[in-house]
Design brief:
This protein has five helices and no strands. By secondary structure, it is mostly helical. The longest helix is centred in the C-terminal third of the chain and has 27 residues, at about 105-135.
Length: about 140
């Protein structure tokens, strides 16, 4: 009996699942999918100043919510992505960008991974060179 009831409910709900749904957009979202995608893309490029490891698109911090509203308001006013980023950089500094620009004051930030890799390679080379110089006595230790 349970199987028959389940099959009947499934059969009745199938036509409803195929109907189009016209829901009102959520508050704070754009009705235009292109603008919504642009907003999400821009929000992923901006760092949450509270969380610091998340973009404002991912963060639930109150500041991130305010920044999302600000970005969306500026998109609605017709500003370009570059204008919005410039506005936020002027207000919060380069740290707001998830990918800071390469300029003299960020060279150390960008070059540190290469410097660490190079230092590791030099240490490995020195250890290998020292190991080659030790004569092998042939006896187990």
């Amino acid at each position: 009996m349970k199987r028959v009831l389940f099959a009947l409910l499934l059969a009745l709900s199938a036509p409803a699942a195929s109907l189009p749904v016209w829901a009102a957009p959520l508050e704070g979202t754009f009705a235009d999918p292109a603008l919504e995608a642009r907003a999400h893309g821009l929000q992923r490029q901006l760092r949450c100043m509270v969380c610091q490891g998340q973009s404002i698109d991912e963060s639930d911090a109150p500041l991130a919510q305010d920044l999302r509203k600000l970005v969306r308001a500026q998109i609605a006013q017709g500003r370009s992505d570059v204008q919005i980023k410039t506005y936020l950089r002027d207000r919060y500094g380069d740290f707001i960008l998830m990918q800071p620009p390469v300029q003299p004051d960020t060279w150390l930030l960008w070059l540190t991974p290469l410097l660490v890799l190079g230092a590791g390679g030099l240490v490995a080379w020195a250890v290998i060179a020292k190991a080659r110089k030790i004569p092998d006595s042939g006896e187990p230790a």
